[in-house]
What we know:
It is a single chain. About 40% of the residues lie in helices and about 20% in strands. It has helices at about 1-15, 20-40, 40-45; strands at about 45-50, 55-60, 65-70, 85-90. A four-stranded antiparallel β-sheet has the order 1-2-3-4. The longest helix is centred in the N-terminal third of the chain and has 17 residues, at about 20-40. The chain is elongated and about 45 Å long.
Amino acid sequence: MKKALTVMVLTGSQLGTAALPPRYQNERDLDAMVSWIKSNERVLTTLNSIDFRGCTVRYADDCKAVFHRRQVVHPAGWAGPAEPLKFSYSTCGGKRTRGE
């Protein structure tokens, strides 16, 4: 009985810690937005703000670059990173760059 309980506890604790802390996903998202900014001279020169929650970058006078994440259906209990954040469009044009 003790042996079965030990196996259950160990298995359960591994499942409970399988998900990554949010900081790793946030770091990946921020890296994606900053990489896009750095690859666009106009954006880098006129950068106003990075809206992390809204996944947008504001630059120049009224320009906004919008990023998105592809939605994927995962099985119940799935734990792991979300799809990568990618540049979607800019209200002032803007070239698509790496990772798209």
